[in-house]
Amino acid sequence: MQQKFSGMPRRLYxxxxxxxxxxxxxxRRYRMQYLDRPRPQARSPxxxxxxxVATHNVLRDFWDLAPVERTPSSxxxxxxxxWIDVGFRDPEQSASWRARTTGRVTEYLRGxxxxxxxxxxxxxxxxxxxxxxxxxxxxxxxxRDGELVVVDYKTGRARPTDDDxxxxxxxxxxxxxxxxxxxxxxxxxxxxxxxxxxxxxxxHTPATLQRKVxxxxxxxxxxxxxxxxxxxxxxESPMFAPAVSPICAWCEFRxxxxxxxxxxxxxxxxxxxxxxxxxxxxxxx
Length: 285
Ligand code: SF4
Known about the structure:
Structural class: alpha/beta
CATH topology of the largest domain: Lambda Exonuclease, Chain A
CATH architecture of the largest domain: Alpha-Beta Complex
CATH class of the largest domain: Alpha Beta
Shape: globular
Oligomer: single chain
Bound molecules: iron/sulfur cluster
Low-confidence stretches: none
């Protein structure tokens, strides 16, 4: 075990925003995802995750094209190249969603200034405070006349609200990180919902951003304690109780969690695409 000397600075707790949120969602799932080794086998991705990841990849690669090549036919070929054929009910459902994704991305990009290169696309940003180091990858960072704007794509069926933009911890942390890295103001965060084309925005103030950083520091402090307890006691640690909720029907570690299996039935691979089923969890939706 590493010895500590008095006066020695404490190491920063390093985490991604996803790690912080995973702890809030369910400590047992957090443990399986980030601490247990060997890591329990997670179930294969569901179709809505495949759609979300492919869409994000297209919206990343689109900006690598020369401006004259940023056309609907290029989008169609990017979707074809990026398509992840996993989790669909059958080949017909996969083909239908590929066509639908092409349409949505094309429509979305029609409303975007395609000649203005974003300042960052899938850009890694970091934020260091006195106690933690947060590193994550934002979807897009725009420079709008000197002001930086954090953009997050949403592909899930559920329409986000302005409140989702206001309360998003990752986007607030990315805004603070981007402002520090580029030495420019960054207070606006936007959710771009591909299925509806809507933009849900929030304008932070220095005080609201500071509150978000404090919230992240508080979660990081809990995680530092939990990780230390795990290092000491392993799976016997009492800090990783299962948080049983409707999310269990979607959980990728459900097969390893008897407590969560009381919530049922488990959602099918393609349930997240169906109109009458509430969308499941997933950071890449
Ligand atoms: S099934 Fe539910 S309680 Fe179990 S790990 Fe997953 S989210 Fe947590």
